[in-house]
Amino acid sequence: MNRTCAVVAVVLLLFVSVCPRVPAQGRRAGRVSAAEAGAGSEQSYRRALAAVEAAIEAHGGLAAMRAAEGVSFKGSGHSFARNQSVGVEPPFDRMEHEESLYADVRRGRYIFENRDPLPGGFVFGGRAVITGGQGFFANPRDKTVAPMNPANLPANILNYVRRVPHLILVQARERAQTLRHLGTAAFEGRPHQVVTFATANGLQVALFLDARTRLLSKYEQMVTDPQTGDAVQETIFRGYRTVSGLRVPSSRVTTRGGEVIEEVTYTEFLVNTSPPDAAFAKPDGYADIPTPAPLPTRETKLGDGVYLFESGVNSLVVEFADHVLVVEPPVGGRGPKATINKVREMFPSKPIRYVVVTHHHDDHAGGARGYIAEGAALVTTPSNRRYFERMAAGRFTLAPDDQSERRRPARFEFVEGGRRVFTDGRQTVEVIDIGPSPHAREMLVAYLPKEKLVFQGDLVNLPATGRWMPSTVNDTTLHFYDSIRRLGLDVERVASVHGPSTTWGDLREAVEKKRAGR
Predict the structure, then answer these.
(1) What is the pTM of this model?
(2) CB under 8 Å to 348, separation ≥6 — which residues?
(3) Helix-, strand-, coil-residue percentages of the chain, each rounded to 5
């Protein structure tokens, strides 16, 4: 059974579980025995449980796993910036990746550290600590400490333990009521038993257990990729060795839709280890950031017929005489459907004719399908055409949207020669390509000369507090600042997709400090 068959098997299994096959005689008699009704589900469960228990033994045994109060590893490798690279087409930019984990599941103590750069001077990661049912995140670049939302702790812990095979297996055993056996499948030329279970937050995970060694070769999840839709994401473990009685991998590789997005080598793996208590304390010299208030969903008027649609991730909405133009269709925030509905409410007689996409990165472009279904034309650069045509044609059954039903082709209005002006004599929006940017080869900004306003995505990213931090001004921000000056645009305000707006004067001051090394 190949990967596609395994996915189909999940659907078939769910159908069998809900609608068990009834013998012809039972159907005629109108009666079904309890044994017959539960045969499919029970057999699937029993086989899955036996496979997981055999895998636990192969990895060292449940007693050894429970006795290993603390496990830790260090890893290094690369991440691949899928739909976040400078260029729109593969190969994706290959970025250095570092991580380390300490996990004591029994006592609920975790320390996870990572460093993940993205093109343009962006660096993500830091030190996350969970203990005593609470957690915090320390940002080494800005020297700040922020509390973790308690509601997010289970998801954070899942993100940590997914990196250690025996912890995944223990989790599957603890969620035994959700175990089901999907059959056998070949992976890398070897037969595997395929077992699925559901995590506490409902995530369905398929485990591929080597039929000979019983070791976990990989696990799969069905995810929604913002560009291509339904996709299989797999994490593959290789090079098992024994450490203190437990079988642990030497490396892991993560793919999405068959494309590698992460490769990590475990450079160190320790069992029955514990960091000092000081490791769980907030670092000295770091400023506390208060728990952020929920970001408001609102429409802030920036000028006559000009509104910033805010919801954590922002869009700019501009009213023209007989239509509306939207700048940025992000996948987050209130999302495209709620934005479109609000535009209809505010401007009931004016259709959304255009949606401008600042750049192809999927968190910014991922909501474009909603506007394609609406019939709006995508305003972008010519090299992005194939990207959005693939998005429009994607199969989105896990997260169906209006485009899933209407299946409209993408329509385009291209920005060529560096600038495209939209005007009705009263309202004017200039869409300008300031690329090549360090963050994306083609990067659009929207300039409204009457309002002296620039709207941009990823070029200036203030934190929710509105305070300028050391990491706020990076190579991408410097390029944006220099581009606006080079173009001679009269700008007083800068509005953002991510974070609050700022003034040109504050941006200039922050750039001057950065370049002065302050």
Answers:
(1) 0.89
(2) none
(3) 30, 35, 35
